Batch of 4 targets.
Target 1
Amino acid sequence: MGFRKDIEGLRALAVLLVLFYHAGFDQIRGGFIGVDVFFVISGFLITSLIRKEIRAGYFSFGGFYSRRVKRIFPLLAGVSLATWCAGIFILAPEDISYLSKSVVAAVLSVSNIFFAINTSGYFAQSSEQLPLVHTWSLSVEEQFYVVLPILLVVSHKFLSYGPRAGLFVVAFVASLAYSVYAAEFDQVNAYYQLPSRAFELMVGAGLALCWDRLKVPGKIASEIMSVAGLLVVTVFALTVDKQSHFPGLTALMPCLAVALVIYAGKAKEGGAIRALLSSPGPVFVGRISYSLYLWHWPIVAFLHYRGLELTTAVSWAVIAASFALSIFSYQLIEQPFRRIKNWSAPATIARLYAGPGLALVCLALFAVQTGGMKWRLDDELQREFSEANSPGAVYRKCFNSYSLERDGLCSLGASDKPVAGIFLGDSMAGHYMSFMDELAKDAGIQLVATASSGLPPFPVKSHPQFGDQRTKDRLDYNSGRIEFASGFTNVFIAVSWANGYPYLSETEAELFDSVEKYIKSGANVYLVARPNNTAKEFFNKVKDSRVKGEDISSFYSERDLKTNYYLDVVKRQIPQVRVIDPNLALCEPDRCAMSFRGRMAYFDHAHLTDYGSRELARIYLGAFGNPLTDTGT
């Protein structure tokens, strides 16, 4: 099989889906399936090459991996370095540290593992602001190609075609089955990890392995298959969205569709679709598709970070800049390194991977060790953007501890006084720990506290949207927490009241019943309102200004009256509950503060910093008194 222009056209389709999706064209709401298209193409081409060399008797692992290095790493290193340098001027210190760690992960081809671990927590950074999050797909591929050549070499040597095919099918079904399961119950790992993505690469690999046994289709059949395949990809790109169970069976259909288009290209004479995919425009975009994929996302992520809206004009500017950088890097980085012929495999790997990779790792670790080069900021800003100021920082032992033992609970307020109640909830309780600590100290009482991200203290159930926050073990813990809390005289509950159902409970009636059970146990129930929810773009704009050392005291967010909608619903239905509303001190009738005394009050668009939580309590106490003095103790 020689060079196929139509496959370059498929690459163009894949990268354009991803590019326009990330650039903010909402019509292409499933544009992320472009990555799945890439996986199938990659699996087909790389397996075809390995199979050809094995059958000809000249395959070598050194030759294979040196080609991978020349193809992948020079540009990856260049984009990573450029992104890191840009980040120094754009990001806050803790975000520079995070970016630096992601550079190390990209160099070591473990980005998917890194982001699966670090984007699953409630206070993990939003993936839309992570400049190198897109390198997860490269890591999946490289991990796949660590295993695939070994299996192909061994199976070719010791097994006939039948057993080889049987083992391949078993592996494919196992990966697909796990992907279906994980897409339902463990979405983060389903999205990022190799076991749930391997079947996509195997669709292309399987096509390559049985290529010679497939009948050559006629022109009409080829055209029908091409039209059908592209139609399926288009439909999925326009209809699949972030809420879909993905990858799983949802990803299987577009993957099979891409394989169908590739197979259609086996025909001796192509039709209109092959002509279209093989035309100069798509072929050119396909050739620079790797550069386009790597360059576009850092641009978008930095725009998100700075709170800039992706208007139509900005979106087209992103696309133009991505193409400009891609053409530049294709000519000056990709092509020159791929043309290197006279280096041995060890020399190629040492000069193009080990050396530059080590330099990048050292640079990144330097940034991590210096706290994101925090010395660039004055002392006040360093404290403001330090880990110690993150939500619940002082109370880490009871925030996502999933334990009701002594070492998994926190003490708030006057620790020398008898325990007067319990404060519990989801991440809202986590960021309100300092707020409640100030109120409890002022009232001269002690509260025990526990907070768990994504887990309101009501009988909630698992749901794909909440992933590993609601595993069976954690739901069992939550049931125990509810029973534990029912034994206290005063129960203070802080949750994300805007999230509705099925977050708070399966139905409104179940939510009412859950609150009433606390009351029937003899407890005084206090519901703590969520702080005003701000638009992500606006929060990012405020944060960007503060990182620059600018005065942010004039920034106010628009009052979002839906922030505590379901708290109001509960209060109307169950009037005996008491409400503590920090927004009384945070907000005016139509706007809410984003800072106190010139310092950031918010950690992200929904949660307060430790400073913001504590300062808000002091303002509240001064203006409205202390609701905890009426706890009956």
Note: The longest helix spans residues 61-90.
Target 2
Amino acid sequence: MSAFSARVNIAPKLARRASKANTGRSSKVPTRMTVAQGVPDVSCDDAPALISTTDAWKDLAAHKQEIDKTHLRDLIEDQKRCEALTVEYNGVYCDYARQRVTEETMSKLYELADEANLRGKINAMFSGEHINSTEDRAVLHVATRAPRNKVINVDGKNIVPDVWDVLDKIKDFTEKVRNGEWLGHTGKPLTSVVAIGIGGSFLGPLFVHTALRTCGEAADGARGRQLRFLANVDPVDVARSLNGLDPETTLVVVVSKTFTTAETMLNARTVRQWIIASLGAEAVKKHMVAVSTNLKLVQEFGIDPDNAFAFWDWVGGRYSVCSAVGMLPLSLQYGFDTMEKFLEGAWNMDEHFATAPFEENVPVTLGLLSVWNVSFLDCPARAILPYTQALAKLAPHIQQVAMESNGKGVSIDGQPLPYDTGEIDFGEPGTNGQHSFYQLIHQGRTIPCDFIGIIKSQQSVYLKGEIVSNHDELMCNFFAQADALAVGKTAVQLRSENCPDSLIPHKTFTGNRPSLSIMLPALNAYTTGQILAIYEHRVATQGFIWGLNSFDQWGVELGKVLASKVRTTMNEKRTKGDKMSDKDGFNPSTTAMLNRYLEGKAQLKYAEPEDVFPCDLIDSDECRPPTDRKSTRLNS
């Protein structure tokens, strides 16, 4: 059956498992269900209400008692097991022999995947079904990197031509900017780009930019250019993003699907005024472009609608780096040809995820291991530890991808979950992290770790008199840390080294701490796309097994609503010069903090608004110094 055509269940509670046949597989009793309004009915492969009610889940829960009797220091010595617990695809090599699993554990996890109808759910995603049922949307970030000749339908329409219309427009525009055909308002080339966006419009592109900055081929294409990101509404971030830039040679990319995102649009208005103050209002059309679908608001803002690049509601923000959200600013920096290789790497892993048997499937296997660690071994977090500085922004990006996707307490159909889901993701490049939080992961809480190593470094240094190259030194730690976590060090070993008895408890390492190791042949645009897609699909696998909707994010909404109330009240009080009172509707704690904040301002009542910039931070001749009331205004 085609991975792109199967129609499958996404609301498991609507059917029950049938009795098992002698083969051990369930006999299929298909039923029909409506996914969402306007979407064709799909068949249910009689999956259970919650995955925890299945025999496969219960079997794993019982199996944990057997795993608790083992230790990784013994398991890691089993050569047959070590050879079995690896998975490799197109240069990406993953060794998970340091996970607290056996071959039997993996068989049971793959059976759990069958029980959860994982294959069907993957097929449904690639087929354009509205698997984001709470928002009635398809989930097709994979389409943003699909080759031209692929057919991916949403509501009966092949969307791949639409994707390539935008990509072709990005290629045409970015080549004009890079070769000097598109010039700024005063006729100067635009060599600096500031991308304004927040959340997925920032973290994903920043991750890719950081990965490619020191890649030789990509860096060659970026010579004489610079790319900066402005995300935080904090004016300090504005100051730092504009520091040293010349408006005459700066192009601004505003990323907001609706063109209403509060933080992004305030930052966009601030930078627009920076351009206008120096070059005049007409310059906006030459110095600002948009990634948005709201052409009306784009035009009202002053940006030519012809310079707006589209994306679609079937691309979630945290999954949008392969759309115009990332491709436009990154192509301006590195060239479209380099970024097309990034798309090819991601699509390569997309196809692997969609078609490979689970036992050979990198994202599926990693996702199942995470389910095992979270729901059965009670591990609440995961450390992402790339042993390359170029992947310094991978962990922050995956932090959003994973925690916003799977940080849920109810199933896709609204049932409270009796098991833990999601992980607290964090990380830091090695060896920096070793001098930061590795103490905890070695001797404190058990935190499963992802070690990511690169075989060929982006930068090679080998000094005279050194026994290994700089990159070899880095990778020696990559190999050693995983073994240290797994094997540990016993009191017996310490005594044999004449360790004082008083220090033995402090120097003992329990070991048995799970990790996995991923190695890439090199870090370039293609492999950056691969590693991105691996983590995206790993997260999807976890959500599909747990029965979540991994593609909505209602948890971010409440704080926005409450901030709007604070904003309205703040404006009222500072316009009148008043303080908060219990009549304003806030609890006593918030009222007290708001008043402390207001009392700390240079003046309680707003001064007359004036377009100023903190020129003591923006080191640029083009920054217009404010009036002699500078200190008052900068503290307003």
Note: The chain has a mean pLDDT of 90.
Target 3
Amino acid sequence: MKFPCLVAALFLSVGLRAAVPVPSQLFPDDSIALLTVPDWTAARASLGAAPLGRLWADPSMKSFRETFEAGFRKQFLATLEKDIGLKPEDYLPLLQGQVSVAVLKGTRVPADETSEPTFQLVIDARSKSEELKARLAEVRAKLTAAKYSLRVEKVRGVEFFTLTVERPASEASDSPSGDDPADKEDADVGDAESARPAPVEITFGQVDSALVIATATAGLDRLVARLTGGVMPTLSESPDFQVAEAACGFRESVAYGYVQAASLIDTLQSGDDSTESGEGGFGVPSQQILSAAGLDGLRSISASARQSESGLLVRFFAAVPESRRNGLFKLLRPEVKDASPPPFVPTDAAEFQRIRLNGQQLWTGVEALLQQVSPQLSTFLLMSVNALGKDRDPSFDFRKMFFGNLGDDLVTYGKPARGKTLAELQRPPSITLVGAVNANEMMAAIRSLASLLPGGPGDLTEREVNGKKILTVKLPGGADQPERSIEVASSGGYVAFATDAVILEQFLRSAEGTGRSLKDLPGLVDAAQQVGGMGTGVFGFQNQRESAAGLWEALRTGGGLDKLIPSVGSKQVEDASSWLNFNVLPPFDQISKYLGINVSSGSWETQGFLIRSFTPVPK
């Protein structure tokens, strides 16, 4: 009886040693960042079953998909295949288990700009361990044949290979332009030596079923120790990581990311604080700005994604313990109040956002923060604000009439663009409503700003609609942009700022009670429950189908990157157009079934601020 038990124990121990630990138990506890897909096979299946995955695989997308994939390979992978003879698609089947990238401090020293952190990549091939071994042998052979330098070394008995690649010298031409040949020759030699950066080293090897790639050998011993069953402190033991894991639900996520922000802030604060490099804006030391803003209380930033049968849940979390909330984190504290769509928000709204933030407390806090950072800047700002409107009335108090009337409600919503051109689609009708204690006083404060407009009082006109006065404020356009205007009016305890006269007039008529409200949209309440409801003080909504329809059709019928992003150069547009051929996209009606709505919420938890976003499966 003892022999079978010993054999079973042996096989069990071998299996345990061969299994790649989960990401949180694989990388060291002092890791700066981690980005991981814990189970590539499961994530790929989940994505394929999700609406966006089905959209990509839809037969009507075949032409665009094939053009994109062929162009992407040519644009980014052709050099690898041409110079070395490696086809990336031959290695994709090796992605079976986790795919994780971790960032370690490595040799990074704040005072040394040439020092860099260490990146480590782990890919678990699971049952394809022998195939991985053969592929790595193929890589080594082709690299050697291509005359690349390979260095072999062992880490805890595991063989690793380091590829050294010389980086080209800088092409910047900042050498002296003097006429002395000797000086020029000396300068050229010095410049050539200083311009040539250190070579790039990439270390790779196989540990059981795991492919390991790193930018430095330092730190590899700890990673190999964990992969071979050794014991060492890992991220799972870090209190900061544990807080992030609980908030974002890493364990049930298909992908997640974590950044130890405390290390980054410490790096910034430990930098040189000399007059030249240590000062931020207005001559204030950067360390002082970081501290006053409260950023030194930020412990970590994390995000996760989980796909289920009901939809996609994405969570973002900024870990700021309650005891360390100062500066901006203390100011930006939405009150736990109803943030659902008010009755006047129409059901055809493409986007909606509501934040219950006390405006008066926010402004008072901003004043105190500026005073802490720079008394001179604070004095200048307050003097400027207090001077507003006094050219007409010396007793006018803009600060009291505007900031003193701010309420605790901020509502923004927009409708789909009416036009079909890219310029019109990029500026859809939208309106922002600011809760006001006394809306009439706030409107009077806005009128006083007419003297600051480029055209003077002539840039502010007034009209009346249904007994409500509307101010039209002209704004100067850019070099290639037409003049714009903002429509301003007050109603129902709000002061409204709109980019479009029609949407503002519709809001003013909403008191008549005609039309359906966004709150009555089918499925909205159920979707909101997935993000904690509408009572957290922050709630948002997007109708993806309405938002995407116009842009999709504009791109399909002649729009391109040059029109969508005018700043993109012609060479970049030409290169991208070979694999982003929008002209072969199917009509939007054929794929609209894959798009639905999205809801989001934000709330302060004990350990930090949590944002949840949920996209239900369209019905």
Note: The first strand starts at residue 33 and ends at 37.
Target 4
Amino acid sequence: MNSGARAFGSQQANLFDAVPELLGAASRADRTSARPSFPFLRQAGKASGAFSRPVPVPESLPAMRARLLNTARQRVLFLALVFAALALVAMVQIFWLGADGAGSSNRSSINPLIPPRGEITDRNGIPLAVTYPAYSLYFYPQAMDGTGENPLVRQPADLVRELKAIFPDMDEASIAAKLASGKGGYLRKRILPEEANAVWALGEVALQSPQVLDRHYPQGRLAAHVVGGVADDGETQTGTFGMEAALDQWLSDPDTRGTPAALSIDARVQGALEDEMNRGMKLAKADGAAGVVLDVDTGEVIAMASFPDFNPNRVSQDDAKNTGNRVTYLRGELGSVFKPLTVAAGLDAGVITNLTRQWDASPVEVGGKSFEDFEDKGDALTIPEALAYSSNTVTMRVGAKLGAERLHRLWLDLGMDRPVDIEIKGTSTPLFPKAPWSPMTTQVAAFGHGFNVTPLHLANAYAAMVNGGIFRPATLHKVEPGASVPGTRVFKPSTSQKMRQLLRLVVKHGTGRNANAAATGFRVGGKTGSAEKLINGRYSTTRIIATFAAAFPMDRPRYVVVVALDEPKRTHAMAGRTAYFNAAPIVGNLIRRAGPMLGVRPDNVRDVDVSEFEYLLKDKS
């Protein structure tokens, strides 16, 4: 064998001798690695360049499971990071909106459920004022070509005729003039959706129906003077008078406007008061009227009405002069309704100790003038008789006994020298004589003359006289049941109890009999007053203010009612122009209707006992 053969044989033997070792190494690699190692293949590949990449080997199940689990974890982490980023962006945006003041916008983008202006309701939740989106009719000349030179497709006169078919009450001449002028502006502030659609169907692009805010009063004229009104430009609404002005901050603040503002008014009683006053005013042909129902324990105004009234949804030019509230601004000498207050002051001061004592009822000479009673009932009268027959002379003598200082002090304690303390604006300052009072001023003031106040002043005073002696200012805010309302004592409890008897006597047997007849069983007590108006410094003999101030039920007074008629006349329906004929029946009819609404039922068994005084009146009635 030559040397080449030997060399080949030697190499061949060595190659086969290495096979068992290679197989053993491969077996060990299978146990320690998922991918087998072939050294001889690597060497061969390196030498020849034929193998540049390893041969793929199938992945084992544990490795695959580990790889998939790792991928899932990465994806979950990615999604979590995305959501966290979105939340961070939202938080930054909310913070930016709050810092930028967007939260105070009337049209809140944060909470569209909050109304642009808060709702006003009565004490039982009946809506009195609400705001909602509405439509208007606006003339925009530049809408056609951007210049406004040719704003309309039709001639103005032709277009007005078509608009008249949509809006029958439209003033054609006025609208035609606005269209012909070429100046933009509102043609109608409020239109219905169907009217907006009809305008759109005309095809005039210059006639637009932008959405605006509308302050609506669902009850119409009911409690119009109490609720008031707003200045409204379609975008913002600001209270101008009444409770709309008093509650403006609450109604416009985003933090509070979502909660309705509840007034003390009871819409049912308010409706009854307005109905009876309107009827009585027309029967007496009075120039105006004012009325109020007051809770004697809390000062809550249950109803308040003024006539002539107005429609708050559309205040016409004629109605604008009627927006003043006569209950709080109509000043006048209310007359004899103040006599019971003078008697109460006499009882408190000990000037009156015996109600059956005879007082001189002859004419009074003071200050160079003579005063006498409207109807002569004799030269001497007791206090019950003096109230029942409305004696000027006896009341003047009680005032003289009291003296200027004590009577003046009482009038101050009852707030007669200052505007009534109530939420609404537009209250009048009384015309009140300055101290020191002369004998003339003192004795005239004792029977309700010489100073001018409003009907609400009188209602506050009567509430204090019958509720046990506590004076509380009137309020138009609802007082929650059981809430304590602070007040100031102005009469003794015993005086208040005695005045209940005397006021009940006046209605049963005196000048208030017409109220008793209209409200049988409701135990009404009160006093009439018919005072001549002071015109240009002189008292008129033909123009008066007729007032009736009452409380019920007198066995446990809960409400005071005051109604005043401005310049009533004698008519076929009214036998006279004094309060006996007009104001007293109005109050009686109201109590008959409103009493059950307020939880007061007719009951003759629980009436106040006035038998100890009735015998005094039998011979003179």
Note: Residues 1-52, 100-110 have pLDDT under 50 and may be disordered.
